[in-house]
Amino acid sequence: MTQTVKAAKKTSSAKAKATPEAKAKAPAVTKAVPEAKKPTSKKKQALAFPFTAIVGQEEMKLSLILNIIDPRIGGVLVMGHRGTGKSTTVRALAEVLPLITRVKDDIYNRTVEQYVEAESGKKGAAALNPEDVKTELIPVPVVDLPLGATEDRVCGTIDIEKALTSGVKAFEPGLLAQSNRGFLYIDEVNLLDDHLVDVLLDVAASGKNVVEREGISIRHPARFVLVGSGNPEEGELRPQLLDRFGLHARIITINDVSKRVDIVKRRREYDEDPEAYMKKCTREQQKLQKKIVAAQDLLTQVTMDDKVLTDIARLCMNLGIDGHRGELTITRTAYAYAAYLGKTVVTMEHVKAIAGLCLRHRLRKDPLETVDAGEKIDRELSKVLGEAEATA
Amino acid sequence: MIAFTDIVGMDLAKQALMLLAVDPSLGGVVIPSAVGSGKSTLARAFADILPEDTPFVELPLNVTEDRLIGGVDLEATLASGQRVVQHGVLSKAHKGVLYVDSLSLLDSSAVSHIMDAMSRGVVLVEREGLSEVHPADFMLVGTYDPSDGEVRMGLLDRIGIIVPFTAQNDYRARKKIVSIVMGTRDSEDTEDELRMLRGLIEAAKVQLSHVSMTNDQIQGLIQTAISLGVEGNRVDIFAIRAAIASAALAQRTEVDDEDLKLAMKLVLVPRATRMPEREATDEEMAQDEPPPPEEESEAEDENAPPDNPDADAEEEQEETPDMIEELMMDAIETELPDNILNISLASKKKAKSGSRGEALNNRRGRFVRAQEGEMKSGKVALIPTLISAAPWQKSRKQDKKMDGRPAGALIINKDDVKIKKFRDKSGTLFIFMVDASGSMALNRMRQAKGAVASLLQNAYVHRDQVALISFRGKQAQVLLPPSQSVDRAKRELDVLPTGGGTPLASALFTGWETAKQARTKGISQIMFVMITDGRGNIPLQAAYDPNAEKAPKEQLEKEIEALALSIQADGIASIVVDTQMNYLSRGEAPKLAQKLGGRYFYLPNAKAEQIVEAALS
User: Which of residues 185-224 of B touch A (CB under 8 A)?
Assistant: First the structure.
């Protein structure tokens, strides 16, 4: 971005952001709001276990990959037994994610279009030429939302240090800003505090984060793929939040001895020398990443027959699923799945493979129901498929 | 201070701590034990065998979220005018020990934070304007008395070693302990012993990387884990680490059967969800004699066509012979309207007043917002306070009265102060106590089950929880500890035994204990829903003394009355639902309701919905 643009932005936002309260009370100057900061450096954590070295748990892995290919699927909820590698898998995701382009140093990871639209929409701002905006490539952000996070850190708040030292009211972006166009991960999501759940529901529905507090007023894009994991024995998830997740992967303890031996061996090898193990998996990791990028490119060419769409609708109807999110999710997911397999036409086979993931959490919940949701879906699916064949 | 080597008995616990000292990646050691067994003394003495300067941090039960995770250091920040970060307890235990006494009483949000830190090895601080990562790679040592309640399974899953439950030490051992406390032992001996032990552990640490384990041994441990129904894969790794640490302590390069047995005893058996198929049928045997090495050789054969894949294993869980003898009950759906949740506790005289679900207060719970207030009346919310003070700094500093203060110091007036408002994380705990004795048991169970299921379905709205206690035979039994989980309730309620005597006093006692435990975890509103004819015929003692099954009527009545009055005085709300046919009833249930200060409903053949209607009237 050029110097002149920056200056223009500053003056305009200063006008907009000086709230009555601030005017009345604060003798200090109110100055620019989003202060372009250095991009928050990626938090240094221990090296993650490689995604491609995770044994089994195909449902969870596929769900995550499909969400990379098409983030509009709406995220994934991973529920299951303790100690089965739920969070290990999600944290391993970062290493296979492709790169995205954002406006250089933009705290909201915006694309050039988003940036130009937002900034030139402001009062008094000079017209922006997209070609003047500098960009950079960054890995798709994966942001961890810990249970103990406070609302101000999630939504963003006034930069207290600046407020104290110079009396300037600057916005310090929160986790929602960081996760724009990326993944927002909540481990033990079923234990998340209610008021944070409210915030998430709000933002997930609108794709925007609106902050009106402590004398600042900010609105910024916050579109993220929501990934949650947890153990159902620790508690239930709010139904509204459950509904927000595009896919629901289930995970259970592997009871196959040789697989478990394999898991243990890989883990021990990794623990001994994480870097060496990572290196060993580099090829596999790169292969997967390439496959994902190829699927992303192919996605625009994928088509679906109307007949398949009818079958999807019939399946959802027979299962008594409220609203249309079920159909929509199945369709998007089936597109992504076809693209992942390198196909350009979605068939019922693709739908069959992902229907459980899309619908499991959308069936009406009955605590005394003994039939597993997955079985129920399969049963209806084969009925629909049978009918389809009969009519054909 | 009593030294590690001076502690008598608890050999298994000592062994466990030594393994942990050798390999801290075992995560931790949990020691469940009765009061007075010396478990906390032992845990504290653990520091003796660790290298010098290893942090040893004891976590107070009433720890706040700020202190646990870390945050802004109020005093230092005010004094210097710059944000000073204070590390939390979790981070202070980095590379050392975090010790929690009464682990089962720790509140659930603290448990979640500990779990999170243990799975990451760091603490993510995303609070009050801070965004930092603090290292928090610690060993967790926890002790608790199982009669205070159980530790959350999710936490246990991250702790490698669970010492099998030990009751009180025997008389002789206790006498010895006393003599040690009185200082009759030579302190020089102690010092020598400790030095030796530390040397042994250091040597074992070096040995650790030289210990090898065969494929068969690894398979054997995993096979055992599977046949015990241990959940998850993390435990496999702990078992292997424990076996290797054990071999290292003995300065061996190969894991032997003793090491495997120890790993099974300390890591696998305490997490068993079912008895192994071919082995011991009761818990005692399983603990004393973990599946012998034959298991391992068999495991090899199992590779080709496995004789028990998942499906088989599931079935076996339900078909333990003991359970088959009991009368099984089908899950029968009762329709229950949603509005059972609206039973207003506030309207009950004895119950604590206040709106359901949340109560704002100045001290406990989760920090929700800051409000103006006196510094003394609560905890100061630093950031909001600073925000309100910030704009005035320039003008205040120019004020002459402030001369002589350090240059960077902030000037904060009384008006700037904001205090934190917390929200109690509490819904209501409904404790269902269902009379599973006699012939009407099936009917009552059905009603209770419908009610529990329906309550749970709506539980997340109010954060309500449900517990279920059944009473029959000699004593009451908690079938479902306070829970919000539909999944778990479904599983626990699938098999409900019925028939036998009516230990009503035991039910009241067990319910009261459950209520007390819930209170320590921040649930203040509790309601008993008793489905019974109120005719108790088994005294409390019967639970401990098989010869005490019969008792005079007066004694039975006295027990029940004393318990009921105490429960009432404790602010627990109750309803009693009597489903007995009229001609059989002798008025015991109304009496019970009266003593409990609760309401009584007579509903022969009641459907669950009728219970609700009555309760709402």
Answer: 215, 218-219, 222-223
Total residues found in chain A within this entry: 392
Give the DSSP per-residue string, A21-89.
HHHHH--SPP--SS--PPPPPPP--PPPPPGGG--S-HHHHHHHHHHHH-GGG--EEEEE-TTSSHHHH
Q: Which residues of B290-316 are buried (b: 16+ CB within 10 A; e: fewer)?
A: bbeeebbeebeebeeebeeeeeebeeb
Q: Which of A260, A267, A314, A325 is catalytic?
A: A325
Residues of A in contact with B73 (CB under 8 A): none
Q: Spell B253-273 as b/e; 16+ CB within 10 A means b.
A: eebeeebbbbbbbbbbbbbbe
Assess whether A216 and A356 both reside in one domain.
no
> Smallest Cβ distance to A253: which of B131, B231, B486?
B231
Residue whose token pair is 């481990």:
A187
pLDDT at B304: 40
Task: Please count the residue pairs, one from chain A and one from chain B, whose beta carbons lie less than 8 angstroms apart.
Answer: 210
pLDDT tens-place string over residues B103-151: 988 887 889 899 999 988 999 998 877 888 999 999 999 999 877 777 8
CATH number of A357's domain: 1.10.8.80
Number of domains in chain A: 3
Of the candidates A83, A153, A167, which has its C-beta nearest B233's C-beta? A83
Q: Give pLDDT tens digits for A99-117.
A: 899 999 898 999 888 888 8
B395–A27: do the CB atoms touch at under 8 Å? yes
Select from B133, B331, B456 the Cβ nearest to the Cβ of A370. B331
Q: What is the CATH number of the domain that holds A157?
A: 3.40.50.300
- Tell whether B485 is within 8 A of chain A (Cβ): yes
What are the structural domains, with CATH classification, of chain B?
4-185 (3.40.50.300), 211-325 (no CATH), 338-356+426-616 (3.40.50.410), 360-423 (no CATH)
Give the closest residue to A222 by CA, choosing from A171, A182, A172: A182
Q: According to the model, what pLDDT value does residue B37 have?
A: 73
Question: What distance in Å separates the CA atoms of residue B72 and residue B87, rounded to the nearest whole number?
Answer: 9
- Record: contact A148-B410, CB cut-off 8 A: no
Task: Return the higher-pLDDT residue of B59 and B231.
Answer: B59
Max Cα–Cα distance, chain B, nearest Å: 90
pLDDT tens-digit series, residues B377-416: 667 777 777 777 776 776 777 765 655 666 666 777 777 7
Q: Same structural domain for residues A139 and A76?
A: yes
Residue in chain A closest to B488 (alpha carbons) equals A233
Alpha helices in B480-580 (DSSP H): 486-493, 504-520, 553-569
CA distances (Å), origin A208, targets A105, A181, B128, B480, B581: 20, 12, 22, 42, 61
Does residue A378 lie in a domain region? yes
User: Is B65 in Cβ contact with A149 (below 8 Å)?
Assistant: no
Looking at the domain assignment, is residue A54 inside a domain? no
pLDDT at B206 over 70: yes
Q: What is the mean pLDDT of residues A189-207?
A: 86
Q: Closest-CA residue in chain A for B127?
A: A150
Query: What tens digit of pLDDT does each residue of A82-102 get?
Result: 888 898 899 899 889 988 999
Q: Supply the range of the domain harboring residue A335.
A: 303-391
Is A257 in contact with B226 (Cβ distance < 8 A)?
yes
- A325 is an active site residue: yes
Q: Do residues A339 and A295 touch, judged by C-beta distance below 8 A?
A: yes
| Residue A48 forms part of a structural domain | no
Give the pLDDT confidence score for residue B186 in this predicted structure: 65
- Report chain A's mean pLDDT, rounded to a whole number: 82
The answer as to whether A56 is a domain residue is no
Q: A159 to chain B nearest CA, in Å?
A: 7
By Cβ distance, the residue of A148, A268, A368 closest to B127 is: A148
Nearest of B291, B208, B314 to residue B253 by alpha carbon: B208
Q: A270 and A332: one domain?
A: no
A185 and A265 together in one domain:
no
